[in-house]
Design brief:
Elements: E1 6-8, E2 11-13, H1 15-32, E3 41-45, E4 50-59, E5 72-81, E6 87-98, H2 106-115, E7 121-128, E8 141-144, E9 146-151, E10 157-160, H3 179-210, H4 218-234, H5 245-255, E11 261-263, E12 276-278, E13 284-285, H6 295-304, H7 314-326, E14 332-333, H8 336-343, H9 349-352, H10 356-367, H11 369-372, H12 375-379, E15 385-388, E16 394-396, E17 403-405, H13 408-412, H14 429-440, E18 446-448, H15 451-461, H16 468-478, E19 491-494, E20 500-502, E21 510-512, H17 523-526, H18 528-533, E22 538-540, H19 548-553, E23 555-556, H20 559-568, H21 580-592, H22 599-605, E24 609-612, E25 623-625, E26 630-632, E27 647-648, H23 653-658, E28 662-664, H24 666-679, H25 689-707, H26 713-722, E29 726-727, E30 733-734, H27 745-750, H28 762-768, H29 784-800, H30 805-820, E31 835-836, E32 855-856, E33 861-862, E34 875-876, H31 885-890, H32 899-913, H33 920-943, H34 945-955, E35 963-964, E36 977-978, E37 983-984, E38 995-996, H35 1005-1011, H36 1033-1044, H37 1047-1050, E39 1054-1057, E40 1064-1067, H38 1069-1075, H39 1077-1084, H40 1086-1090, ...
Parallel strand pairs: 8-10, 13-14, 17-18, 21-22, 21-23, 26-27, 26-28, 33-34, 37-38, 39-42
Antiparallel strand pairs: 1-2, 3-4, 4-5, 5-6, 6-7, 7-10, 8-9, 11-12, 15-16, 19-20, 24-25, 29-30, 31-32, 35-36, 39-40, 41-42
Helix pairs in contact: 2-3, 3-4, 3-5, 20-22, 25-26, 29-30, 32-33, 33-34, 33-35, 34-35, 38-39, 42-44, 44-45, 46-47, 48-49, 48-50, 49-50
Length: 1289
């Protein structure tokens, strides 16, 4: 550099202005050569000064040339010389270089090629700085071969072939609109550089710690170790900002699996290195907040348990925690959970820690989980030696054995330290809470000292008794306990006799005060010796600290309490004996204070032998105890009823029952003792008056119990009713339920001659009925079993002596009783033949009555109301023994003849009586009988299909014709009787093979159908008619005018003339044209051309209809019906215009009226079809179908006409009718064909041949009908073959 001025960029650059630039460049030259591998020296020479920067480097041994290694690491030294070649600064660096792609996609390679970037990168970490330099003075920068002013806030320099902005003061980012350059920079920072930093850190770890001299003393090693450790971690990128964020985050992610964390060897071996590199995921980061005397021991414990403890500072741990948590990576820390894990089974750690504070800190750390309610941590506490005892030992937490905590006073009363927790170790408030938590959880074996354990320890140390001073201290300790039950074994209770007994003896003891009587007249004095022998405790409350527990557990002194305590003493009271005076005293005391005794006391008092009994049979008495002995409830006297030595006299009934005596009810005593003695004749009322008196009194007492409100009322009633206690007239024993009531009329009638063991002894009966009592109920005929038994007896008598008057009397009495109880048995069974039958019938029925036995069952006899329909087959109830209405309600079929009987009766009428009853009165009676019989059979058949089938089956047994079908003939005439299959219903005329059912018999249709009479079945109709529009008042008026044919008032403008000077029909053209397209077309067409005017009324148009009518009255009537429909939209009720000669409703309903109506409807149907009035056709079909006008005589004609006029509903209905009655119609048609064939074969009577032609036409028409049936039934061949066979009959 010369002193002459230079010119550049239009400015003057002299020495003063250039020198600072040279100095700055010389300063940058100290680091500029870090990543310039080929440049070794830089010299700056001027006329006055000289600067020089020299670089020398050597490869780091063991870090280059490894297999698979692509990075090189050099130790670089920079020597800087100032003017005069004087050294100005020296520095040492660890430089790592790599210029390969680790893994790069084709995209990043294409980006690099386009931008002419290469993956060359490097890291430079300062190993030595010039003296006076510090970490805070160091500023990490980005290099791109040469340094840039871009600071990284990292403790090392970062080099890479970056994409820089034009002035090299920043990296290209995505904001610069150069996505390739920004992507390359991001790839360099997040992918290429972080692995190189990790490798450089690994090299740095080795360089730092390999220089440590392991031959020095341990203290020297530790000092140098911590110094090197601090220098090592100063190179770690702990924080990041700006562009370096992704680089630092990626570095920490790689550190998680890289061996760059220093860990001392887990085993102290001679040739082991000072540290080993571990991956971040495998090391345990140390605990920093611990007392000084605790931390080394914890670290030693961790190492002894093979835990790789990382030697790092807090900043490193915090940075690792931050970055790894951000990347969802795991981190092992020295926390309470880890310590609990390594402490399990190690019981001497707490002993090694000398300071109280250190132990307290560790207890809070390890047991603090109890306060956090962390169940996982709590589960790991068992087995940890963390419980201090008073003997300065530490034991493990476990459910067993249990260690106790106690107050200072309690511990002063005994010297047992092996089970007592040292509570002074839990000095802080948190430790106190932890101790309380340990006490609450039984899993850790820590509990407050229970009273029983306190008592055990005190008694163990004072086996000869507690000295008086200590006794007072014990009272002082337990005074605050409200419940002293746990201290029951402590011998501290002082009695009035001066003895000291265990505290538990206060239970049930008596407490006295100075005011209580203890003189000779008191009960305590009278029974004092007995009480002392019984071990009863009596004490003064004042001399025993007046504790409320003693007051609660003991009872106040009184006469009754002394008795209670005496009883509860536990002695054998049943073995004690008392004289009569003592027994009397005790009885009086017990009776007077009975209500004051508890149930338990009274139960024990029952063992005292102080109660007099009834004694043995000969009358002697003795004292017995109440317990397990008996007392008769109610105090009833049981003398003279056998031995009762264990029964206490009834005077003390209420008292002894409460003391444990069994209250024996008189009913139980009678059942268990009296009845067996009666049966074994120990008690003999019949022969021993005293026994009879006692027996009668016993019965009266039982009756009294059974009639009063008591809990034994029902039991006494059952005993009297069902127990074998009642004497019969013969002296035998029975239950009331087995003996008959001597006041029952039916029983005395039926059993008047029976033995005396069926009725009770009269004296006994009187006693049982004393006071009007009805508690005992002897057997009466109102009872179903008794009534059945009587019926069986009467049934036997009707067999043995059927004609005896006594038998008839018994039977009549029985029947009358049965009528009062019809539901008592199934009296309709045929076995009960106990009803006497009616002896005779009036004439003429008596002549044909059957022979019957004298007694018959209820089901075989018939009421006289049914005489006409069964007299030839059955017997009848006597008029005074007919079942009343209540029986008929229960016996639905009583008195009614069975259907078989009615059929047999009909057979008898037709076979036997029709030919023998010849007089007028007999024949009239027989006709009436037949009508009644037919009525009954018809009613039966109409009730159900099952009945109809049953009747049909029964009628097949008839051997003679049984249908009387000719009421005009005599009933004895055989021609008047017909078989059912010779008759037919629902036809107009008889056929060649069948006769019509007489009109008087049509009411019996169900019977006739069941018998086999042919009938035409009706079929349901199905015709739908569109509803007519609602008529207005004007329309109704027009219709009335048309119907009246009042041309003057009606202003009618058209006349339909059928005969010149004859029948006319007047109408309104507008109505007809509006209602029918046909008429509208005619009015505008044919009729308009040939219309004429009436000479009398020129406004009236006349239409000549004579050519259409051709003298046919039916056409005129049908045409009027069409016009009527166009006016009213209804079907006319008349067969043409209404005239006085029209048929009435009744005539229309007759057979001829129906025939005329059908003929008219068919004519009307023809016009409706021609005029295309479809709704009128539906109305015609509706009337034909639903008024059932289609019958056997016209079904074929109507079908043919309807099919021709396209009225499908009528056609379908006719076919349904034919299908339903195919057999009857076929029989009818074939009969007509056969009859016509026979007439044709005769031939000769027809001279001109006209009748023959007519018969042939009729025969052909019938054959057509037969073919129609065949077509409908799909059976033409069978019918045709049948027809051909009949032609030749």
């Amino acid at each position: 550099m010369t002193n002459r001025d230079s010119y550049a960029f239009g400015e003057v650059w002299d020495a003063a202005r250039v020198k600072p630039l040279i100095n700055q460049w010389a300063e940058d030259a100290k680091v500029s050569m870090l990543f310039l591998k080929q440049i070794k020296t830089i010299n700056v020479i001027s006329e006055a000064d000289k600067w020089a920067v020299v670089k020398d480097s050597e490869p780091v041994r063991g870090m280059s040339g490894n297999a698979g290694s692509v990075s090189s690491f050099d130790k670089v030294r920079i020597h800087a010389y100032g003017p005069g070649d004087q050294p100005s600064a020296n520095s040492t660096w660890l430089v790592g270089i790599n210029d390969t792609y680790p893994t790069a996609t084709s995209t990043i390679r294409d980006i690099a090629q386009d931008g002419r970037w290469i993956p060359h990168r490097g890291i430079a970490m300062p190993l030595e700085q010039p003296k006076g330099d510090a970490r805070m003075a160091f500023e990490g920068r980005i290099f791109s071969y040469l340094p840039t002013p871009i600071a990284t806030d990292l403790p090392f320099h970062v080099h890479g072939v970056f994409a820089l902005i034009s002035n090299r003061k920043g990296l290209v980012t995505s904001a610069a609109n150069n996505s390739h350059a920004a992507s390359w920079n991001e790839y360099m920072l997040s992918t290429l550089l972080p692995p190189l930093i990790v490798q450089t850190m690994s090299c740095l770890l080795r360089l730092k710690f390999d220089c440590l001299d392991t031959r020095q003393p341990r203290t020297g090693i530790d000092g140098a170790f911590h110094a090197i450790l601090g220098a090592y971690f100063k190179m770690w990128p702990l924080r990041s900002s700006g562009d370096m964020t992704s680089l630092v985050q990626r570095f920490w992610e790689l550190a998680h699996t890289s061996l760059i964390f220093p860990v001392r060897p887990l085993r102290q071996e001679t040739d082991a290195p000072v540290v080993q590199g571990f991956a971040g995921k495998d090391v345990c980061f140390p605990m920093c907040k611990a007392p000084l005397d605790v931390l080394p021991k914890l670290e030693q414990l961790l190492r002894e348990n093979d835990v790789p403890l990382c030697e790092c500072v807090q900043d490193v741990s915090s940075s690792a925690l931050y970055h790894w948590r951000k990347a969802s990576l795991t981190m092992i820390q020295t926390d309470a959970s880890l310590l609990r894990k390594v402490l399990r089974g190690n019981s001497d750690l707490m002993l090694k820690i000398r300071s109280q504070d250190g132990r307290g800190w560790l207890l809070e750390l390890l047991l603090g989980v109890l306060l956090d309610k962390d169940e996982d941590g709590i589960d790991h506490l068992n087995g940890l030696a963390l419980l201090p005892l008073e003997d300065d030992t530490w034991v493990s937490l476990s459910p067993n054995p249990v260690y106790y905590t106690a107050s200072t006073m309690a511990r002063s009363l005994f010297k047992n330290h092996k089970t007592m927790v040292k509570e002074s170790a839990f000095a802080t408030s948190k430790l106190q809470k932890i101790l309380k938590a340990l006490e609450k959880d039984p899993r850790y074996g820590v509990a407050p000292l229970p009273p029983a354990k306190f008592t055990e320890y005190v008694c163990l140390e004072n086996s000869a008794g507690i000295p008086q001073p200590k006794l007072l201290q014990v009272w002082e300790y337990i005074r605050t306990s409200p419940d002293l039950t746990g201290f029951g074994d402590l011998p501290i209770l002082t009695t009035i006799w001066g003895t000291v007994v265990p505290l538990r003896n206060c239970q049930g003891a008596l407490r006295v005060s100075q005011n209580d009587r203890l003189d000779t007249g008191s009960m305590l004095h009278k029974l004092g010796q007995v009480l002392q022998r019984a071990g009863i405790i009596v004490f003064q409350l004042d001399k025993n600290e007046k504790h409320k527990y003693l007051e609660a557990k003991s009872g106040p002194y009184s006469d009754s309490s002394v008795i209670s305590a005496f009883v509860k003493s536990g002695g054998s009271l049943s073995s004690m004996t008392f004289d009569s005076s003592e027994a009397s005293t005790l009885r009086e005391v017990i009776r007077s204070a009975l209500n004051e005794f508890s149930h338990g006391v009274m139960s024990d008092l029952g063992f005292l032998r102080i109660w007099p009994s009834y004694g043995a049979a000969h009358g002697e008495s003795r004292l017995i105890c109440a317990h397990s002995n008996q007392i008769i409830d109610g105090g009833h006297d049981i003398r003279n009823l056998g031995d009762s030595h264990n029964v206490i006299q009834g005077t003390y009934s209420d008292t002894v029952k409460r003391l444990g005596a069994h209250s024996v009810h008189l009913t139980d005593f009678t059942r268990e003792r009296v009845i067996p003695r009666l049966q074994s004749q120990v008690i003999m009322p019949i022969s021993n008056k005293a026994h009879m008196t006692a027996y009668i009194q016993l019965l009266k007492n039982l009756v009294r119990i059974a009639t009063t409100k008591s809990n034994q009322k029902s039991e006494a009633q059952r005993l009297l009713q069902f127990g074998s206690l009642i004497l019969a007239r013969d002296g035998s024993l029975h239950a009331c339920n087995d003996l008959f009531d001597p006041h029952d009329t039916l029983l005395t009638t039926v059993y008047r001659h029976s033995s005396s063991n069926r009725f009770p002894n009269q004296e006994v009966y009187t006693a049982l009925q004393s006071g009007g009592s009805t508690v005992t109920k002897f057997r009466q005929s109102t009872q179903d079993p008794v009534l059945i038994e009587c019926a069986n007896t009467v049934l036997e008598e009707t067999v043995k002596r059927p004609h005896a008057e006594a038998t008839k009397t018994m039977a009549r009495a029985l029947v009358i009783k049965i009528y009062t109880k019809p539901s008592s048995a199934n009296w309709m069974q045929s076995r009960w033949k106990v009803v006497p039958i009616s002896e005779s019938l009036p004439a003429p029925y008596s002549s044909s009555a059957p022979y019957l036995p004298a007694y018959m069952s209820f089901s075989d006899l018939i009421l006289k109301d049914y005489q006409d329909i069964a007299w030839t087959q059955c017997g009848f109830f006597p008029s005074d023994l007919e079942p009343p209405q209540n029986c008929r309600n229960v016996w639905a079929e009583v008195g009614k003849p069975r259907i078989q009987v009615i059929v047999d009766h009909l057979h008898s009428l037709a076979k036997d009586l029709a030919s023998t009853w010849t007089s007028n009165s007999e024949q009239l009676q027989l006709q009436l009988t037949l009508i009644n019989t037919y009525t009954a059979l018809n009613k039966y058949a109409s009730e159900s299909d099952v009945n109809s089938t049953t009747l049909s089956s029964l009628l097949t047994t008839m051997t003679v014709p049984y249908i009387f079908n000719s009421f005009e003939k005599e009933i004895s005439d055989p021609e008047a009787w017909q078989w059912p299959d010779q008759l037919i219903l629902d036809v107009e005329n008889p056929t060649a093979t069948h006769r019509l059912v007489h009109s008087k018999l049509t009411q019996f249709r169900s019977f006739l159908a069941a018998a086999g009479v042919h009938e035409m079945l009706s079929v349901a109709g199905d015709v739908k008619v569109t509803p007519a529009p609602p008529p207005s008042e004007f329309v109704t008026m027009l219709c009335n005018l048309f119907e009246s044919q009042d041309r003057t008032s009606g202003f009618m403008d058209v006349c339909f003339r059928f005969y010149p000077g004859g029948q006319d029909i007047f109408a309104h053209k507008i109505v007809l044209a509006h209602s029918s397209k046909y008429f509208k077309t005619r009015f505008l067409g044919v009729w308009a051309k040939h219309v004429t005017r009436d000479s009398a009324d020129p406004m009236l148009e006349v239409i000549d209809m004579s050519s259409l009518a051709s003298g046919d009255e039916d056409f005129y009537a049908a045409f009027w019906g069409v016009l009527y429909y166009l006016y009213s939209h209804n079907l006319t009720r008349w067969n043409g215009p209404p005239t006085p000669a029209q048929l009435s409703e009744a005539q229309l309903a007759s057979r001829d009226g129906v025939s005329e109506r059908v003929q008219y409807l068919l004519s009307l149907l023809a016009l409706a079809d021609e005029y295309q009035i479809s709704r009128l056709k539906d109305l015609i079909a509706y009337e034909l179908v639903f008024r059932r006008m289609i019958v056997q005589g016209n079904v074929f004609t109507v079908r043919e006409h309807a099919e021709l006029k396209r009225c499908r509903p009528v056609v379908e209905h006719c076919e349904k009718y034919i299908k339903a009655n195919a057999i009857s119609l076929k029989s009818f048609v074939m009969g007509e064909i056969v009859a016509l064939q026979k007439e044709l074969l005769k031939g000769g009577r027809d001279k001109d041949g006209r009748e023959t032609v007519i018969m042939k036409e009729e025969k052909a028409e019938y054959e057509t009908h037969l073919q129609v049936i065949g077509e409908i039934m799909k059976n033409e061949e069978a019918i045709g073959s049948h027809l051909s066979c009949n032609y030749y009959l």
